[in-house]
């Protein structure tokens, strides 16, 4: 077992330079010589399974998103404290890529080649994760539950190792579009979009229902914090409903700019950008308290697919609170942490399904076979099968009211393309009593 | 002893450099074969920094022109490579060559503008270039993939190469290792060409221009043309570096070519010693191997992961200032000074 | 029409900030023939210093004043400690030192204050004024922005025109040797010049941050815009820098509003190249010849 | 103004530019109320001598004393504040400033040295002395002719209330008529104010015509020292070094 400690790394680096300049030097053995593990695979030992993820811990996307891995870590610690999965603890490593795809490539190299993880769990971001899609699939690393709603993760033919998790942006866009068509049929709709697949997929979904109502689509480049020209254009186009597919920082920026322009359309933000607590805390400090907290998001429409902190009595939220209190670090339980815990919960389910001697191949096969039947924290099931690696299939439309949300309709499910939107009626079951899933191994 | 050595080294410059490159190749094979895939991937990263830094050191060190825009030139090379490799029909060496040519052409344009500027003006203009060019990729998102960029099909080792490799080393050829080979072979070729160029007529002329513009102009040299040529050579290197980067990172995206990249390259050449190719290699090695070491020191000292990650750039910045204040010749300058002192002492006793 | 008016007003208040930043660059350029590429990082750093003060319950103005004072001190320290040895040396060395400072300060801010987006308060309302039935993109804070840049400009003009200190500083900037022969303590004047410039830069940093999100790299693009504005104004003239700042602010706002926000930095590059190649002396400079 | 102008004593002063010795153990004394001329061919070290005295060039050896106070190695601004006004050759005017601003700089130094505030009066005396400057007081010094510039720098030096005036080629590029006026003015000043003047000139004949004593420099060494009249009368010396 080789474990590069602090000194090992530092001296290793020096040695590598020396090696280059002088002659040769053995800075480590060959990898993947672990033939003796029986059915087990890279990153799996008798005591542990090592998994990794990449997240923006710094930079433009860090607010909120940087909390996701802390949630996942807390849940894994909770599972480990309760005996782990098939007797193995889950060893979770996550690294910062600053939402920069080039960094992502570097840190995933480290995770796969240096840390030798068994699987990638919850790697975050559309532009970032697409940079490592080929690499992970080429190396045969299971790439589970990407933290992004892009359609890219559902290409089982091309990327057999990759699985989506959250409802994709097209599904969300369709459901939002249908809501606007039904309830605001006369509205002129403006779109406020992040200039990448995130915005594009959302736009595609929305246009399928309200193509004729859309009067303007404005895109912002992430990193440029001056969105005044975009908001002014939406206002000029006379949009009285604005649908935003954007990250939380830009929810705050768009609200702030709209206030400056006294522009008051009905705002609809996709789930990703709408966390009231986070946006509120970003907004609260402006103008010496003249902007009051989440009140600014009062009445804003968004979507939900997980019970969150605004439903403290939901049995799932009670579980997350218990986990966070016992294993969380600093800070409160937030929706982002719940997101991370829910992903971790799904991974535990998948690992259980992969059996007592998990392999990379085995966990992928297990998800394809039973993934569609798994039930967990989300209101709707996954769409996993041999032909589909798409994640959750629906959301419900809600309105932000005070510190909570109120439902504007039932839970809806749909698929990509022309699939119709239908109501999902299965009752949402609570978590197991011990808070740990119990999935039978496949085959 | 030195006389013996001198006799063993061939007289011709080209031969001598060639011999150095062959020796380098042997070292590269030995190092890549004995290190882990992770180290291999680090060496692959180092190779593209080194290619770009070698080109930059010719421009800044020999010709006296600063460029904060080499990141943008690398972007040109990377996107060219990504576009050509997309179809799967263009072999990667051809794509790399094309990247170098296209970037050199861009270098003609940028160089022509840059030749009329000096010092702070040139720095500011190339800084604007570095900040501005990535915007093109977002504007032409249909072709260039916008914010998320173009993913690149990294070349897989062809059968004969893998076979030859197995025959020689009895080990299988991983993806990281193959990319490291591509990067380092490119680097050795670039170093060979640059070393010859620097030792030859153009090297002398460039140095003359740097040291005394007026005198060089009076001596009948066409400064504009010389400056542009230096820029083109340097741009071609940046283009190649971009091509290697695209294949190693498997992506050409705007976020890969921020101002940080350009400043890192500058750090590498300044710390290594302006105008010195070995210095550029040393500087690039620092760029790759220093951050993990510094980051570990930081976490060891109780910093959070995020704080520790920022420790490396902090060290770069401080080192850049300190080097300029105390040892403007960089590491190579220091070594040369020590070497000379050694000889002088040896002579006097 | 409303859109045009709003984009114009937005451009004006952004332009005022670029003007302040360009002014800071020009002050240092005139005094020491150095472009301070670390100006943005210095401004970012002092702005961050105000944040914990304001968060701890002090008034906005306490933080504001603290940031400006910190700018004064930082500017003086930077000149005295790291710039003095490279002043008058090869111009490349000075450029590299300022870039080193830029990298180091940015990393240090991330270590000390964190690297995430944080909101920064504004002392005045952020709700636009209403004219007739329209609300325009001009807020009490915009008035403050433009007002404070005007005040700084007037104060600097008064300092240079009407005071003995200003005369000494100008003399040192134009001719160090003659100034020394006239008993002017040139070293002190240069330190003071950097200190004043850093205060103006800090002000620009505070104004950009106000009612917006800050992170350690939030001033990066502003360095470029400020540099373009300063070159547009001819690098020598404070008045030119202000005019250049306003022009850049307007131009970039139109580009962002009508062509796309991803083109803003490219537009800045285009303007810079055009000015350098066509009118290297800037739009307003009277000096006959200048080497660029 | 300078109530008891101090003597300027230069002892064993040497200066080098890299390997080149520009001044080699020079001894010169200039007394108050007298004009001391330093003569010599181009490259003899005259300008280096003045630059070393005023602290613009670091001397390698020797000392500079003003009224017994050791100023060796002091920075230029300290030497200026001690009362040595150096009027450099050619480029003494700050062209970007106005005429009045140039003068005010000298006046500021004078105020600092004397602690008086009577500005208008003193600027007025210079304008009286040089009416051409008064007309152009608001103009940039850029617009002045060569003669006017020379007046400006001398006027500015006088405003600083110096004890010692170092004049480097004040006649350079001026019409003979103006040179004569200028020298008459200098003579008059010295007689009236009792200041010490060290006058560097290539035009030895006219310099000696107003000087009291003279030193001849050649290749950085003093090769002759005598009163002005006997220097002017020494035919060999004139022939060898002074060229008239």
TrEMBL record, chain A:
The cross-references to Gene3D superfamilies, in alphabetical order and at most eight, read: 3.40.50.2300
- Keywords, alphabetical: Signal
Show where the Leucine-binding protein domain sits: 48-401
> Per its UniProt record, what PROSITE patterns does this chain match?
PROKAR_LIPOPROTEIN
Residue ranges spanning the membrane: these are: none
Say yes or no: keyword Oxidoreductase present.
no
Secretion signal, residue range per the UniProt entry: 1-27
Q: Does the keyword Transit peptide apply?
A: no
Q: Report the family membership.
A: Belongs to the leucine-binding protein family.
The entry's protein name is Amino acid-binding protein
From TrEMBL, chain B:
Where does the UniProt annotation locate this protein? Answer: Cell membrane
GO molecular function per UniProt: branched-chain amino acid transmembrane transporter activity
What single Pfam family name could you report for this chain, choosing any that match?
BPD_transp_2
Q: Where are the transmembrane segments?
A: 12-31, 43-62, 69-88, 94-114, 121-140, 178-197, 228-249, 255-274, 281-302, 314-335
Signal peptide feature range: none
> What does UniProt give as GO cellular component?
plasma membrane
Q: How does it sit in the membrane?
A: Multi-pass membrane protein
What keywords are annotated for this sequence in UniProt?
Cell membrane, Membrane, Transmembrane, Transmembrane helix
Q: Which domain of life is it from?
A: Bacteria
Keyword Chloroplast among UniProt keywords: no
- Is-annotated flag, keyword Transmembrane? yes
PANTHER family named among the record's database cross-references: HIGH-AFFINITY BRANCHED-CHAIN AMINO ACID TRANSPORT SYSTEM PERMEASE, HIGH-AFFINITY BRANCHED-CHAIN AMINO ACID TRANSPORT SYSTEM PERMEASE PROTEIN LIVM
User: Per its record, how is this protein called by name?
Assistant: Branched-chain amino acid ABC transporter permease
Automatic annotation (TrEMBL), chain C:
Q: Which PANTHER family match?
A: ABC TRANSPORTER PERMEASE PROTEIN (PTHR11795:SF451), BRANCHED-CHAIN AMINO ACID TRANSPORT SYSTEM PERMEASE PROTEIN LIVH (PTHR11795)
Grouped into one coarse class, the protein's main location is membrane
Q: Which UniProt keywords apply?
A: Amino-acid transport, Cell membrane, Membrane, Transmembrane, Transmembrane helix, Transport
Q: Where in the cell is it found?
A: Cell membrane
Q: How does it sit in the membrane?
A: Multi-pass membrane protein
The transmembrane segments are 12-29, 36-54, 60-82, 94-117, 137-160, 189-211, 217-235, 266-284
Output the GO biological process annotations, alphabetical, semicolon-separated.
amino acid transport
Q: What is this protein called?
A: Branched-chain amino acid ABC transporter permease
The record's GO CC annotations read: plasma membrane
Q: Name the InterPro entries for this protein.
A: ABC_transp_permease, BCAA_transport_permease
What is an example of a GO molecular function annotated in this UniProt entry? transmembrane transporter activity
Q: Which family does the record claim for this protein?
A: Belongs to the binding-protein-dependent transport system permease family. LivHM subfamily.
Superkingdom of source: Bacteria
UniProtKB/TrEMBL annotation, chain D:
* Stated name of the protein: ABC transporter ATP-binding protein
Q: Which organism is it from?
A: Prauserella flavalba
Keyword terms, alphabetized = Amino-acid transport, ATP-binding, Nucleotide-binding, Transport
ABC transporter domain location, by residue? 8-244
InterPro entries associated with the record: AAA+_ATPase, ABC_transporter-like_ATP-bd, ABC_transporter-like_CS, BCAA_Transport_ATP-bd_LivF, P-loop_NTPase
The record ties this protein, via PANTHER family, to: HIGH-AFFINITY BRANCHED-CHAIN AMINO ACID TRANSPORT ATP-BINDING PROTEIN LIVF (PTHR43820)
Q: Which GO terms describe its molecular function?
A: ATP binding; ATP hydrolysis activity; branched-chain amino acid transmembrane transporter activity
Query: Which protein family is named in the record?
Result: Belongs to the ABC transporter superfamily.
User: Which Pfam family, giving just one, matches this sequence?
Assistant: ABC_tran
Report the superkingdom from the record.
Bacteria
Which BP terms in the Gene Ontology apply to this protein?
L-amino acid transport
- Source organism lineage? Bacteria, Bacillati, Actinomycetota, Actinomycetes, Pseudonocardiales
